[in-house]
Design goal:
The chain is 32% helix and 25% strand.
């Protein structure tokens, strides 16, 4: 499932999950892509790194390659996986993906240096796994509360963690969008993977930074509270981000936790 136009909607059962990507108001092309693979319990957003060559190619390769890589990892295990084993499978699949895209970046001159972020939700019968590299984010929306599930892999985040800068400094720091982890990087990446129990009354939001750079967490929460269906909520989020300036490509995927199992 790939993004083949500047404005692209990917949808299936709009009552349970929905994905929407839009090029925004400033960018000339859309370098974001999304993947909806409910039969695998897999949903993700990939944001081709702006300013790098062929960002849209890198994010499209995620859609084409990641589901099969992950399926191969999982099928190689005949037994029921523990949480730690499942986390390892996800990490290895993402590392394999990064290596594949790094290799592709050397196949043609116009692909040199291509890169992308990834944030994914993998559902099993009892658990939800969130994995990511870069600054695309995942949130859990439950009881009208929006909870971040990822921490950006950016220079500013590292500086904040080291207490080298303040939150106020971070807002306008030149390294705010400088990635330190991403798909296609030269070194072996270290994906973050978490596992949380599934609940029937929660939704998971996956998004690119074209949403979170334009809207506060409070504004995102308001859109989710006011729009109960995944379809309506995704459309409201993209519209709000464009109303706020639409400075980047905007991609959102919203999944009801009842989708699988």
């Amino acid at each position: 499932m790939t993004n083949t136009s500047d404005n692209f909607i990917e949808q299936h059962d709009v009552n349970q999950y929905y994905g929407l990507t839009d090029k925004g108001l400033i960018r000339k092309k859309n370098e974001d892509n999304l993947g909806l693979f409910p039969e695998q319990g897999l949903f993700f957003v990939a944001d081709g790194v702006g300013g790098m060559p062929a960002g849209e190619v890198a994010s499209m390769l995620v859609v084409e390659v990641l589901p099969a890589l992950l399926m191969q990892r999982l099928k190689s295990k005949s037994e029921l996986l523990t949480q730690n084993e499942m986390k390892l499978c996800l990490k290895q699949a993402i590392i394999d993906l990064s290596n594949r895209i790094f290799s592709q970046s050397h196949s043609r001159p116009e692909y040199a240096g291509m890169a992308t972020t990834i944030v994914l939700a993998q559902y099993t019968n009892n658990d939800l796994y969130i994995a990511h590299l870069g600054d695309s984010r995942a949130y859990l929306f439950k009881g009208d509360m929006l909870q971040p599930l990822t921490n950006d892999h950016t220079l500013v985040r590292n500086l904040l963690m080291a207490k080298a800068i303040s939150q106020e400094d971070a807002v306008h720091h030149p390294g705010r969008n400088q990635l330190v982890q991403y798909i296609g990087m030269t070194m072996i990446p270290k994906p973050d993977v978490i596992c949380i129990p599934r609940t029937s009354d929660a939704k998971v939001l996956l998004c690119s930074d074209g949403l979170t750079d334009m809207l506060s967490q409070q504004a995102i929460s308001q859109c989710l509270r006011e729009n109960s269906s995944p379809e309506m909520a995704c459309e409201a989020l993209v519209k709000a981000a464009n109303t706020a300036g639409g400075k980047d490509n905007i991609t959102v995927v919203l999944v009801e936790e009842s989708i699988v199992g």
